[in-house]
């Protein structure tokens, strides 16, 4: 036996003798397999194969591609996901971990031969009692209020939807978090989006979760953030803030899910960054852009196996076109109706029709009609 093997064995023995016992650790594997077939009609021409809006509805990506056909069909299993969870009792303290992967939002594969796409991190967090560290849903968002749609997000334009790294503290109904900052602004007069990670101030979020005896679940959240750009001729900071209410209300055996959000400088937090957080004025200073969005979704259970959801969603930005120009996004609307069938609890088949309309300040628009057929098996 060589010296290196001896040292490894000694180190392992010492670790086993001094390490705490993890006999109470519970490990769970989960996720689901989901296959989609999407028949899409783009009013101004379909994006190229593999582009983001061919995977799911992304506001701002449906204005069309000149010269391309309007009707396309896409088969995909990219929403399929896998997660691994652990829960351990460490001397009376609760220690948990979670990592989850899926295969969405990539253009690194193709549909010619193997349809191979790289996995990506959705969630990667560790929690110790009331503290959570890592990447997960922003505290400003209530993921439990998202409607049951076959589109990857559904109600995209009116939804707060962000995953990012953070430090979060939870105490009863309250949650407080410091989260990763990132600023997006429109240059003076319009042009390509400026993305900045400058600044030392994290985004600050507070949220209150409220549950009633009748089954209603509500959340009230607020955010304060510093918009900061130090690039080229731009060296400016501005305050951004916002508030959101979201939840689920039982209606007999049915339920109503909703969200309403308003803010100045929200940018990427609302509608997948359909509008930027701010615009640079003639003096090189950032001015926050007002935006609002929301959705409502009613889900009806026809019986224990059949159900349908009707969802309406919208977004509006209040752009100062003297600064932003007329080519920036102004409004986005979408609607969804579906029929889902679960012959057994882990298995669901469904069909959904969606329509989306996006408009710019100059009056140009793009629309999308899509029919989605899906099969989903929860592991």
UniProtKB/TrEMBL annotation:
Keyword Signal applies: yes
Pfam families documented for this protein: DcaP (PF19577)
Taxonomic superkingdom: Bacteria
Keywords linked to the UniProt accession: Signal
InterPro entries reported in the protein's UniProt record: DcaP
Keyword flag Signal: yes
Signal peptide: 1-23
Protein name as it appears in the record: Porin
Protein's organism: Shewanella intestini
Upper taxonomic lineage: Bacteria, Pseudomonadati, Pseudomonadota, Gammaproteobacteria, Alteromonadales
């Amino acid at each position: 036996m060589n010296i290196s093997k001896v040292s490894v064995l000694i180190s392992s023995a010492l670790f086993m003798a001094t390490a705490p016992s993890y006999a109470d650790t519970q490990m769970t594997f989960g996720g689901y397999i989901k296959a989609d077939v999407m028949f899409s009609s783009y009013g101004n021409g379909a994006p190229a194969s593999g582009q983001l809006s061919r995977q799911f509805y992304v506001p701002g990506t449906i204005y069309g591609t000149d010269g391309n056909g309007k009707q396309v069909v896409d088969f995909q299993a990219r929403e399929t996901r896998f997660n691994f969870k652990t829960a351990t009792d460490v001397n009376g303290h609760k220690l948990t971990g979670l990592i989850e992967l899926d295969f969405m939002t990539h253009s690194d594969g193709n549909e010619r031969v193997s349809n191979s796409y790289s996995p990506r991190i959705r969630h990667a967090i560790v929690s110790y009692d009331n503290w959570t560290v890592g990447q997960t849903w922003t505290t400003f968002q209530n993921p439990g209020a998202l409607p049951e749609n076959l589109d990857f997000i559904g109600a995209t334009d009116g939804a707060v939807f962000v995953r990012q790294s953070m430090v979060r503290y939870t105490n009863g109904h309250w949650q407080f978090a410091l989260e990763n900052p990132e600023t997006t602004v429109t240059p003076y007069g319009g042009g390509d989006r400026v993305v900045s990670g400058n600044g030392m101030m994290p985004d600050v979020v507070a949220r209150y979760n409220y549950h009633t005896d009748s089954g209603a679940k509500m959340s009230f959240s607020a955010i304060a953030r510093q918009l900061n750009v130090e690039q080229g001729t731009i060296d400016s900071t501005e305050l951004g803030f916002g508030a959101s209410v979201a939840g689920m209300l039982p209606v007999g055996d049915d339920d109503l899910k909703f969200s309403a959000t308003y803010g100045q400088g929200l940018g990427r937090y609302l509608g997948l960054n359909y509008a930027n957080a701010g615009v640079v004025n003639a003096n090189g200073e950032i001015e926050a852009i007002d935006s609002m969005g929301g959705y409502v979704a009613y889900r009806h259970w026809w019986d224990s196996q059949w159900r349908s959801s009707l969802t309406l969603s919208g977004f509006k930005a209040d752009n100062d076109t003297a600064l932003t120009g007329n080519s920036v996004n102004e409004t986005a609307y979408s609607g969804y109706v579906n029929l889902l069938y679960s012959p057994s609890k882990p298995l669901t088949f469904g069909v959904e029709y969606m329509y989306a309309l996006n408009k710019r300040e100059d009056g140009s628009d793009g629309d999308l009609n899509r029919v989605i057929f899906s099969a989903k098996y929860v592991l």
